[in-house]
Amino acid sequence: MKTLRILTGVACLIALAGLSACGGGGGSSGSGSDGKTALYTVSGQLTTPEFAVRDADVPVEGALTPGNNTDAEAQPLPNPFVVGGYVSPAAQDSGTLHFPQDTADIYRVYLHQDDSVRLDYFSALSSASPGPLSALTLEMEPEADAASGKQTDGAAGSPLKLTAQVAGYHLIRIRLNTGTTPVSYVLSLGGTGTSTAASPYGGLNFVPGEALVQFRGDVPAMRALGSGVEVIAGDTRFGFHVRQPGVVRSLSAAGDLSARLATLAWIESLRTRPDVAWAEPNYLRRAAFVPNDPLYADYQWALSESLNMASAWDRIPAPGEGAVVAVIDSGIVKSHPELAGQLVEDADMYDFVSAASLDLDETPGRDPDPSDPGDKAYGTTSSFHGTLVAGVIAALTDNARDGASVASHARIMPLRVLGKNGEGTDADIIEAIKFAAGLPNASGRLPSRPADVINLSLGQATPDTALQNAIDQVAALPDAPIIVAAAGNEATSVPFYPAAYDNVISVSALTRDNTLATYSNYGSTIDVAAPGGDTGDPILTTGAVEQGGGLYTGPFLASGTSIAAPHVSAVAAMIRAKRGSSFGPQAFRSLLADITDDLGDPLRFGAGRINADKAALKALDPDAELVSADVTRLLLGSPTDTATFTLSWPSGRTPVIDSVTPTTLNGGDWLSVEEVGTNADGSVTWRAGVKPGTELPTDTRLTGVIDIVTPNNTLRLTVNYLQTTAAIAYGDVGTVYVQLRDTQDDSRVYEVAVATQGGSPAAFSLSGIPAGTYILLASTDRDGDNVIAEDGEAVALYPVTTDPQELTMGGSLTGLSLGLSYRTPVASSAGSGIPTALA
């Protein structure tokens, strides 16, 4: 039986008598018909990070599996990658455990220029005093470009980092430097080389065969019109829009490279003519604003892809300005630098936690300070759940730090209702809702102005009349706030409250691929879907964790419907800030069909995926028609593979498209796009693929974008190319130990070992389980020390690692899902790493 490290004392996850952060279980205990204790089964599947790879030589029952210790036997890796590994300076014993010698691990991977490789490492010994941590050295050497030379990072302490100077295959070597203890590590691809500078022709964004020309003043107009160019429009005062003779305009505005270069040569020839004052390409313009926050490009797919925030920011440069969003949650970490100046005045926030058994702050009972003291939701570690939620809505943006948010100019009204173990009572939540709406409440005070939006990333499966009445009372106000709630993380169609109430917008969670997250609730009560993330692609936000007697604040990665809901709350705030307080709950609900992208099944996605750009345009022009695409990301799996996307207008008429421009962000100029044709309903289908004859590396993800410019909006689709080979076992983290642990009796643990291979979900089943309350978790034990859930292991808790909940066993449970991700220690500064909210 494996020992649990991080969750010892897990009985802190007591029965959920009240509400908890996006979870809660249901069921009842009982006996069989023969009077004997009934025994049940828990089953489901494990999912692993898509690009997870296992170190080829790790301890298995004290022996080392085949090695990767020399350049000749370098283990191939995909790009991107995350590897869990092990090295040890010598064979050694610790108690009953044996750690075999493994002095080096060597990998081979194709890296793009500016790809960053990161190495986190920690002691493999599980004793209380493991001794000094052995030091590692990270080396990177390009195979084909010796001139750039070998790079080495042997600095003291974890993590180590190196950045590729050239594109091509590289050897990555992990060697022991000093020390005597065995070491576990996580090797991963950090920031990627995906800037537009990687494409030598990224700046050539103009219409091939066209130019803007001004003829000299002494040239008669009729002569200008007959000057060997085809005039499209213009006059002698402002210049002419002209077409190169014999060239047919293509809406694939990037065209092919030869057409663009030919256009530049033609324009240069025009400039040499004595009758031409100036000549310029007919440049294409699109939304120019991209925030300078360093983590935006690599981590915030939810904003750049799903919500189309770049275009929304261009329409509304100060999104949410003047709006207030009440976050009714676990409170707030006021000291977080990304929330500085983003909160309402102190008099407009409050702590409503009344029960002494739940309130962990220094002022028992309700008080004016909603600061989050930590909820100890993970035993010794807290979730700081309200801070995770607030960062999605209104973290500082374009301040060259961490990441961006949706409604960065809105203000957060933190109202604390969740205390110990992330639990809160209906009574406290009701009072907080009344406060946010400007109604008399138990605090004896009113905010200087009511909230425009209320976010409730909490709930359970049992309805409550008092809570529903409070919500209905607020919704009936003349300037009622829009109430948004998480749909729940139990992967069930059972209604989840308060999200399921009529006057609440219920939000399900999406993955990056626009599928329903495995943990997300679904059903007839879902109103809309938003990014919630998953194991491979979590959501970047603000967070905090206790560390060394203090509090670490910085960027965190999180997943869940708790994270999906604030995306919708922020979009609602952005619209209300422009439309005014009369834009209330019913107006927002009626608008959902116009500000979402249809994903199909309304029982999973409601009206569809929330689209911030559509919302921004509707906020400014309620009558505007927007072109939409049926996808946000295209996947190509081989040089001959193609993928299609369809553009349409809500009216059913053929959409007006100004340009469709493909641009590659790495791997050279490989992406092509062409129009397929107009469909019977007026929509237009396009096809993307790899340019014929292009040689591309295998097991390496390449990225391109397709920018679509229309009269009213701009769309950006992401294109990922990845040709996999049998040389790499994707999604393999090795053997995983699935445990069901009794929250009332720490000695009662049920365990099964499961092998993960090939990236396919791995099934697990635990049987002979009596009624009771349990937590479900899974972890590797890569270093073989019989302790799981340590730093460096792949770990999962049900239903979401960043928001674990207990299971109440009153019958067998099937179809559960555990998403594994690597656990790394919290970095000492925001710039040196992004922990998950569990860390």
From TrEMBL:
Catalytic site positions: 329, 385, 562
Annotated Peptidase S8/S53 domain ranges read 320-608
**Which terms in the Gene Ontology molecular function aspect does this entry carry?**
serine-type endopeptidase activity
Question: Which keywords fit this entry according to its UniProt record?
Answer: Hydrolase, Protease, Serine protease, Signal
Give the InterPro entries listed for this entry: Peptidase_S8/S53_dom, Peptidase_S8/S53_dom_sf, Peptidase_S8_Asp-AS, Peptidase_S8_His-AS, Peptidase_S8_Ser-AS, Peptidase_S8_subtilisin-like, Peptidase_S8_subtilisin-rel
**One GO biological process term:** proteolysis
Q: Where is the signal peptide?
A: 1-23
Return the annotated region ranges for Disordered. Answer: 359-380
Record field: compositional bias (Basic and acidic residues): 363-375
Q: Does the keyword Membrane apply?
A: no
One Pfam match, given by its short name, reads Peptidase_S8
Record's keyword annotation contains Zinc-finger: no
Give the record's family classification. Belongs to the peptidase S8 family.
What PANTHER family does this protein map onto? CEREVISIN-RELATED (PTHR43806:SF11), PEPTIDASE S8 (PTHR43806)
The name this protein carries in UniProt is: S8 family serine peptidase
